Q: What sequence folds into this?
């Protein structure tokens, strides 16, 4: 047995809480190590905010732990959940390749953060899978978690990424990898569905009580606590989805088992950021119907919230459930409008801005304008707009729009320079386009992890332009449109 700095720090909160319920909620699982492990990347900023020093993070004993070696003083567990996949009830799923080592108390409030390994071998919920994750998908998850965090969007985080000599069979044999995923919670909508549809309202209540105790302890004695819990799921989901839409993020697999109860973005698979603005964009190659297309995400999230809310029927009246769900649309729209107004450099959203925003988006869609690039360039908007006009074939139409826009920005009590600065804080120079991840993956598969490092650096502060990453602030190369990504690998 190897000693490790987590040894006295990790709590076994979930394990202890549900111990008496046996394996209704989880199974104890022993991680399986990757052979001859090596670091791909360490996220020192996240480590620091978790109270883990750089030395501790890089310690050889931590390389072993993070690459799946067993430390027999931890009760590592995998959780069971169910879910709706592509609108169909899928029955029992669960952590098929995720193992939670424990929870780390963080900061003065000792808030607990789950420390989890993704890709550390089979669990009782692996079904036909091998419990592994390939390097390629792990790099995507690692980078995108931090990119989303950098964009200010609620998400699970990624502490480190390891690989080694273990091969996994996909279409070819690929290197295995493990991401250490860190989150305030890994509880999904599908956890509630699991107990609701197995006719076990007692466990639904136990789960709700656990979440309230861990995340919302102020409500513990509040008679409306279950209403508040469902309401908080609705509101936090609405906010996260509004943020996704504002940065052009497409999740790709918005099944109810991939929806976090805290509204965090979770389970990065075939995600994609928009290059050209295309509302019908489908990032998941296996999503033939486009159920999870970019423009469908807000309504799919509500569909998923309905599925979650159904599971609260043993805790709440129908009227309370309906009341929670009805708050979604307003919450979503009010976040979306506020963010879009900010992207346009408007101090406040007013009703007439809806037209201004919509006209712009329609023009961008018709002319296939690059979403991220255009908004970043819009930060430099002035009365002479040659460079912006050049994005459009129908320049006259753009000129008409920019006349209205100019009037709107000039009507505010805000100088050009201040507006520009404010806009640069909300319009990123960089998002994780698929081709960027692809570049980093190609290099990493040849043993060069420097591109992963560069992308981590630029994406965690995506509003700062960096000369060394100039090419990533521009249009994607032609081959980018050929990239396809589909479900778990
Ligand atoms: P996903 O589409 O990644 O959200 O995965 C759906 C379900 O399949 C979850 O229960 C995963 O844990 C499981 N799963 C995905 N890939 C694997 C794998 N390689 N081995 C075992 N289970 C997996
Ligand atoms: Mg999943």
A:
């Amino acid at each position: 047995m190897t000693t490790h700095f987590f040894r006295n720090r990790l709590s076994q909160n979930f394990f202890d809480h549900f111990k008496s319920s046996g394996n209704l909620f989880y199974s104890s699982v022993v991680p399986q190590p990757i052979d001859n492990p090596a670091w791909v990347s360490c996220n020192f900023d996240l480590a620091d905010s978790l109270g883990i020093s750089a030395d501790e993070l890089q310690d050889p004993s931590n390389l072993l732990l993070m690459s799946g070696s067993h430390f027999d003083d931890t009760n590592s567990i995998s959780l069971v959940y169910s879910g709706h996949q592509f609108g169909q009830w899928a029955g029992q799923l669960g952590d098929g390749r995720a193992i939670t080592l424990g929870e780390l108390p963080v900061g003065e409030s000792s808030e607990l953060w789950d420390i989890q390994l993704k890709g550390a071998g089979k669990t009782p919920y692996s079904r036909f899978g091998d419990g592994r994750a390939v390097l390629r998908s792990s790099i995507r998850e690692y980078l995108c978690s931090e990119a989303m965090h950098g964009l200010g969007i609620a998400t699970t985080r990624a502490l480190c990424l390891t690989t080694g000599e273990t091969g996994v069979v996909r279409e070819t044999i690929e290197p295995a990898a493990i991401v250490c995923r860190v989150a305030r919670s890994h509880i999904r909508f599908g956890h509630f569905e699991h107990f609701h549809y197995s006719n076990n309202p007692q466990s639904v209540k136990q789960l709700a009580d656990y979440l309230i105790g861990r995340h919302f302890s102020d409500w513990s004695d509040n008679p409306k606590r279950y209403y508040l819990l469902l309401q908080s799921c609705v509101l936090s989901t609405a906010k996260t989805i509004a943020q996704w839409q504002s940065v052009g993020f497409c999740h790709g697999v918005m099944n109810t088992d991939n929806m976090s109860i805290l509204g965090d973005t979770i389970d990065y698979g075939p995600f994609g950021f928009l290059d050209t603005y295309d509302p019908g964009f489908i990032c998941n190659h296996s999503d033939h119907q486009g159920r999870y297309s970019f423009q469908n995400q807000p309504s799919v999230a509500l569909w998923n919230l309905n599925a979650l809310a159904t599971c609260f029927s043993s805790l709440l009246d129908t009227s309370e459930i309906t009341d929670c769900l009805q708050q979604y649309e307003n919450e979503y729209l009010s976040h979306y409008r506020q963010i879009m107004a900010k992207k346009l450099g408007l101090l406040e959203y007013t009703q007439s801005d809806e037209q201004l925003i919509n006209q712009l988006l329609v023009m961008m869609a018709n002319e296939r304008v690059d979403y991220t690039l255009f908004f970043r360039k819009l930060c430099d908007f002035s009365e002479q707009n040659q460079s912006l006009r050049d994005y459009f074939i129908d320049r006259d139409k753009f000129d008409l729009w920019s006349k209205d826009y100019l009037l709107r920005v000039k009507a505010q009590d805000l100088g050009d320079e201040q507006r520009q600065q404010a806009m640069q804080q909300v319009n990123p120079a960089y998002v994780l386009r698929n081709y960027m991840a692809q570049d980093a993956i190609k290099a990493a598969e040849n043993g060069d992890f420097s591109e992963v490092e560069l992308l981590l650096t630029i994406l965690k502060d995506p509003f700062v332009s960096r000369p060394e990453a100039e090419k990533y602030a521009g249009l994607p190369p032609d081959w980018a449109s050929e990239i396809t990504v589909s479900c778990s690998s």
In short: The first strand starts at residue 26 and ends at 28. The chain has a mean pLDDT of 96. The chain has 17 helices and twelve strands.
